[in-house]
UniProtKB/TrEMBL annotation:
Domain of life of the organism encoding this protein: Bacteria
A GO molecular-function descriptor: DNA binding
Gene3D superfamilies membership: Tetracycline Repressor, domain 2 (1.10.357.10)
Keyword hit for Lipoprotein: no
Taxonomic classification: Bacteria, Bacillati, Actinomycetota, Actinomycetes, Streptosporangiales
Alphabetic keyword roster: DNA-binding, Transcription, Transcription regulation
InterPro entries referenced in this protein's UniProt entry, alphabetically: Homeodomain-like_sf (IPR009057), HTH_TetR (IPR001647), Repressor_TetR_C (IPR004111), Tet_transcr_reg_TetR-rel_C_sf (IPR036271)
UniProt DNA-binding region: 35-54
Protein name, as recorded: TetR family transcriptional regulator
């Protein structure tokens, strides 16, 4: 008698797996193509199973995706400038990693883990001696989000006629660092 290999049990569904699969769809096909049915198919579950982990459904999923790319934490550095620079660079990388959810990051108000991260950054900058730290954080966030939006726009990511989008653009790196230097100098005054 030939023994059949044991069937591997399915990987249990989790919030993390759902978010990972949703990011994959959004980054590869765009946010418009991200449906609960398509997400269920990617996870090899019925779409309704997703609601067990995200009871508010698609709205909760969109919130979770926005949080995933905007809830950035960095260790406190020796100066507020170094902390702000580390935070801006980490935020930029998180957003660039998932261009498919950039629109959500730009439009969803900070809540949950993102709100905590924003408050933490303001506290870090204030503790390091920056007056008006909350205002500075809003300015830094605007700079990071805007620069990534321009970068993704210029990369060809959303253009259906582009086969291979440019993930790394040296000019964008130079522009980002130059803008960040100018912004940090401006915040010192």
């Amino acid at each position: 008698m030939i023994s059949m290999p044991a069937k591997r049990p399915p990987v249990p569904l989790s919030r993390e797996r759902i978010i990972e699969a949703a990011l994959h769809i959004a980054d590869g096909q765009g946010l418009r193509r991200l449906t609960m049915r398509r997400l269920g198919d990617a996870l090899q579950v019925e779409a309704m199973a997703i609601y067990h982990h995200l009871p508010r459904g698609k709205e909760a999923l969109m919130d979770a995706l926005a949080e995933h790319v905007t809830a950035v934490h960095v260790e406190q550095r020796s100066t507020w400038q170094e902390t702000a620079r580390a935070w801006c660079r980490a935020s930029r990388e998180a957003l660039r990693e998932h261009p498919g959810v950039l629109a959500l990051a730009l439009t969803k108000p900070p809540k949950g883990a993102t709100a905590v991260a924003v408050k933490e950054q303001a506290e870090q900058l204030a503790d390091a001696g920056l007056p008006d730290a909350a205002e500075a954080v809003r300015t830094l966030r605007a700079f990071v989000f805007g620069s990534v939006a321009v970068e993704v726009q210029q990369s060809g990511w959303a253009d259906p006629d582009v086969d291979e989008w440019v993930r790394r653009d040296e000019r964008a790196d130079i522009d980002f660092e130059r803008g960040l230097d100018a912004l940090l100098k401006g915040l010192q005054t």
